[in-house]
Amino acid sequence: MGAAQKLMGTAAQQAKRAEISLIKEIGYGLLIGIACGAVWKVNHWNERRKVEEFYANLEAGKITTVKEES
Question: Domain of life, per the record (predicted)?
Answer without folding.
Answer: Eukaryota
